[in-house]
Amino acid sequence: MSKKLDDKYIKMDESKQDTLKLRHTAEHVLHTAMQKLYPNLKKAMGPATDEGFYFDFDLDDKVTEADFPAIEKEMARIIKSESKMVRREIEADEAKKIFAGNPYKMEWVEEIAGRGEKFSTYQMTLPNGKVIDEDLCSGPHLDSVSEIGAFKLLSVAGAYWHGDEKNKMLTRIYGTAFATQEELDKYMWQLDEAKKRDHRKLGKEMDLFSFSDLVGSGLPLYSPKGAFVRRKLTEFVESVQAAQGYYQVWTPQIAKADLFKTSGHYDKYKGDMFRVVSNYSDEEMFLKPMNCPQHTQIYAAQPRSYRDLPLRLTDFAMLYRDEKPGELSGLGRVRSFSQDDCHIFCREDQVDVEIDVALQMTKKVMDTFGFKYKYRLSTRDVDHPEKYLGDPAVWDRVEKWAVEIMERNNIPYYDGPGEAAFYAPKMDLVATDALGREWQLSTLQIDYVMPERFNLVYTDQNGEQKHPVMLHRAILGSAERAMMVLIEHYAGAFPVWLSPIQVTALPVSEKTMAYSEKIVKELKEKGLRVELNSDADSLGKKIRNAEASKVPYMLILGEKEAESGQVSVRARGQKDLGSMSLSDFAEKVIKEDKERSV
Q: Name one GO molecular function term (predicted).
């Protein structure tokens, strides 16, 4: 591992690896228990994840959460057995013999054999040497199942093999595991709180976005309030970018296949791209899944001199990716989205300054939302160099350069081997939300590949042609994913500057309706986003509705307020702020809006 800024980040990364080992082992305990309880099942596959683990089974029996106590009891018995996890390397013939009756394992065996890779299995072995389970697996695992401190099964769902609806529907069981019961209890609290904050639930309750079967899965429709939040986010990022000399462009949502063949995306991601069919042309075209190839053509449209650089292009145009139906999830995984994309074309001697500025811009945005964060240095998978384009020597230099950038900016980071883009390593920002969950948002990449593949050039001070360096940068990433994270981070209670409605006026009775209308009119003239609740409900119900709508401020307007010309202010969360003049209240809200207070 590369040098870190602080030992706690090394420990954090090692701790994460230990947790993945534990969960991977718990996944083996699960399928061993299932095999004991349902002898006729066929094991498919299942990994450890950042949240726990899951496993897919081909079962004749229907398994529900009501069956979990029996499964957990058998898992606990296996853990108490103190079985060892023993790794074996075997030949293809033996692998085929062991898994001959299982079509799912045989598919993996054929695939591994086709790649010419070694086969490894893990045997779960009792202290007396008896093998109670063996599964095709690369590991790693704990030495013994007894090291699993606490576990719990969470849910059951249907899952198509390989996520393809053309394949058989399997039974997927989700669970989680930790080293201690205390950690499990904390996670279960977090999980319960996450359910309350689920952006899909809040999005519907707050009328922010929806999905329609007629429009298509993974294609979000934004209601006025949701569209406002989305627009406010992109406007915020654009205001930060514009102040640093970034220029917004707009590019088509379709392009010829030739563009993506040149960039390399065609060979790498063709299966994840939507094909576009013309009634009048036989040209192969696609909906664009990313902006960078088209931005190269804006650069190429004019001759460029070293004096023209850096050229900073930003783009919020819509993008499309053909995600598998089983992997779509609210705004977190969609088929249509936009990114706060930026591509900076610069000289090599300008890279450090441009990246430092981009990092500071990102810090400003993250601080505004109250996110703590660190960076993942996403590098090549050294065992699979065929996945990447470009000169390995350049990759070595840029990966080392990325480390220097992190350390120069005093940024906590950890390694992410195998997480690089196919054309460049990445500096990926991982934000921590209010529940302690981590989300990858921003990214920065130093790219030498694209300028060479598109033959982008500029004339240097000696009159020679040189390739620029292309920096890829996003701050929030996709607006859709950012909205998901923020809805759950704030539990729908957006700060004043992001709230579609900042103030709701609540007349106590019909007698104060005229005064309430006057208040609303004056606040709107001051630029505030205000609504009037003119329903004939009781004041208590109006307050409850306003709280449910997550409006930051309520104005209680009774006869006393009408006579004094003041407003009685109640803040979200049942905080009574007392009476104040309308001008003082407006000044307070305007200040919070302008300062983007968290």
A: metal ion binding
